[in-house]
Structure formats: structure tokens, C-alpha cells
Amino acid sequence: MKESEPTDDTPVLEAKNLYHVYTSNEEDGNVVALRGLSVSIKSGEAVAVVGPSGSGKSTLLKALGGLMKPSAGSVYLNGQNMTRITGSDLVRLRQETVSFIFQEGNLLPDLNALDNIAQPLRHSGVRGKEARKRAMEMLESLGIADRAYSLPPTLSGGEAQRVAIGRALITNPKVILADEPTGALDPITGRRIIELFRELNEESGVAFLIVTHSREISSFANRALELRDGRFVAQHGNDVDDLDLAATRELLIDDTGTLSMPPDMLATLGGPGRFEILDIERDSIRMERVDEERLQIDEGTEMKLAPACPACGYDYGNSSVEECPTCGATRPMVPSS
Ligand SMILES: Nc1ncnc2c1ncn2[C@@H]1O[C@H](COP(=O)(O)OP(=O)(O)OP(=O)(O)O)[C@@H](O)[C@H]1O
Ligand SMILES: [Mg+2]
């Protein structure tokens, strides 16, 4: 077997060390949207991506789907390095492997529902009649065959999204990338769409990477990745609650040894700083914040509480209070010699 030939264990989608910088001449300057991000999705796996607005979710999906070339890093589709191939080879690899569903704007407005679904097949070389026949079967399985000849602007949100799913599915992709696919739908329609994703995942083994704020999607996903500021900072098991991520977090340390921390955890730790390692073993690390004042002192200098208040001259005597009882000034530490 050739080295590049995919095996059963080959991830269907893998990204290594993705960076992306949006360059701009405007005042805000460049935006670093992805900062060394790696992810691997196995065949048949469903993965959710959660994270605040601006954290890089859409940028990640576009890079993974080949809609945008990341500034650095590699994307592998079914074991093949997508960042190395170009032209018709890239088009074919994408057509055979990956489909996209966005929140809105998935459909070509001038083609009816049937032709919207048939179009990706036509692009991959299937003849018109056959493509339309398969598109009609797809519409039937999605329960919207009666809207086959309607144009997208006349479809309801849920119908349009089902057509979009039909477009995404018709080429039998191994993985579907979906960017907030139920965000624009009412909750009931959204739930139906999620049910459809679940079925496709469980019965047909289609892998999913879904950007979502929906609890239900996170609950059908095998795991959820938490994105902050262009990095994956944590992973959650299934049934993650988007509003309380702290409850199910597992922190991630990447290949470079970098441990990034969600802001709420960092705040609990008392903010950025230096930490002394008290104890480290294979699966655990215990650390303690290094006192900043102690750090500024040359090694070997013994420190003690100031004997007198530097502000008002109050004599502390033998007391160990840390605030001056006369003027309220903080009692400093001074070298003991
Ligand atoms: N075309 C662009 N040009 C310049 N900056 C961009 C562009 N697209 C996105 N960005 C910036 O990159 C960062 C990541 O954006 P991205 O759209 O990936 O975030 P997101 O997580 O999808 O957010 P949301 O939840 O709001 O959709 C943001 O700071 C954003 O302003
Ligand atoms: Mg987005």
C-alpha cells in the first residue's frame, strides 16, 4: 500500500498547527484569527466547536473545508495534504470528501430546490437526467419533495436549510462542516435538522464538525472543543452546556507543550503570573503562585515587616499587623539587615 493511501484509522479530517492572519490596511491592522490550532476528526465522529464570538470558529471551518487557505499549517482530507494540491485535484478531493452547510446563504437563488441539489452532482460529472433523479430522491427523503420546483426565496427557513442539507449530502461526503446550521431557524425546525444530522451520523457514519450554540447538537456530538482567541483551550464530553462550560472542562496541552486556559479559569487562579511547581507526576501537576514581591528581591536577602510606618512614622513595635492603625497605609516588607 502506498504511504498516502488512507486506512481505516486515517482521520477523515485533520489540521496541524493552523495559523491564520487576516491582513488589513485599515487602522485595526492585522487580525490573528487562528493561533497554532490542531484538530483531528475520525471517520464517523461528530465534533462540536463552541466558543465566543470572534474566537475563530468560522475561520477554522473555512480553512478545514478548503474555502480559504490558512496563512500557515496543513489540512489533511482523508490523509491527503490539501494545502499541497491545487487546481482540479483539489476540487476533486473536496468534492469527494467534504461538504459545507452555513447558517444562511447556502442556495443559489436562481435555481429551484431540485436543481440546487442536483448542481453539485453535475459538477462532479453526473449527467443531467441522472443528477435530477437522485436530487428528487434526496428531496423525498428530506420530506420536501413538494417544494422541488420552488425557488429559494419562496422557501421557509427550515425548508431552505433542508435543501442546503440535500446539497451537502448528495455527493456522499465523508464529513460535513456546518457553521451554526440551526442558528437562523426556529427551535422546532432546528430540532428537526439536528435529528437529521444525528441519523446521518449514526446510520450512515457521516462525520460532522459543527459550530454551534445549541445544547442539542453538543449532546449528539461525541465531544465538544472549546475555542478561545484562535486556540483550542479545552475539550468537553458529550452533553456540554454552552452556558456553563466550566462544569465539564478537560484542559488541552498541545504538541508544543502550550497550555492555554479559558479566562474564567484564569480569573479563579488569580490572573496571569508566575507559578512554582510543587509536585509533578505523569498525570498531575501541583503549583503555587510565586509571590511577586518576593521575586523582586535578590536571592538570599531576608525580608521582614517594616518596623515603622513610612507614611506617618507610627512605631509598629512587636505587632504583626499589616496596615498602619494611625494612617491606614499598607505595611511594607524591608530587608532585615
Ligand atoms: N474577512 C476578514 N477580514 C478581517 N478580519 C476578519 C475577517 N473575518 C473574520 N475576521 C476576524 O477574525 C476573528 C475571527 O473571526 P471568525 O469569523 O472566525 O469568528 P467566529 O468565532 O466565527 O465568530 P462568530 O461567533 O461571531 O461567528 C475576528 O476577530 C474577526 O473580526
Ligand atoms: Mg462565525
Give the topology, please:
Layout (H helix, E strand, L loop, with lengths): L12 E10 L8 E11 L4 E5 L6 H8 L7 E6 L2 E2 L5 H11 E4 L11 H11 L4 H14 L15 H13 L5 E5 L7 H18 L2 E5 L3 H6 L2 E6 L2 E6 L13 E2 L11 H7 L5 E7 L2 E6 L2 H4 L7 E3 L27 E3 L2
Helix pairs in contact: 3-4, 3-5
The structure holds adenosine-5'-triphosphate and magnesium ion.
Please tell me about this protein's structure.
- It is a single chain.
- With about 325 residues, the protein is of the alpha/beta class.
- The protein has one domain (about 15-255): Rossmann fold (3-Layer(aba) Sandwich), CATH 3.40.50.300.
- The chain is built from nine helices and 15 strands.
- The chain has helices spanning about 55-65, 85-95, 115-125, 130-140, 155-170, 185-205, 215-220, 265-270, 290-295, and strands spanning about 15-20, 30-40, 45-50, 70-75, 80, 100, 175-180, 205-210, 225-230, 230-235, 250, 275-280, 285-290, 305, 335.
- The strands form four sheets. The protein has a seven-stranded mixed beta sheet, with helices on both faces. A four-stranded antiparallel beta sheet has the order 2-1-4-5, covered by helices on one side.
- Strand 4 (about 70-75) and strand 5 (about 80) form a beta hairpin.
- Helix 3 (about 115-125) packs across helix 4 (about 130-140) and helix 3 runs parallel beside helix 5 (about 155-170).
- The mean pLDDT is about 85.
- The structure holds adenosine-5'-triphosphate and magnesium ion.
- The site of adenosine-5'-triphosphate has 12 residues, from strand 2 and helix 1.
- Adenosine-5'-triphosphate binds near residues 53 and 54.
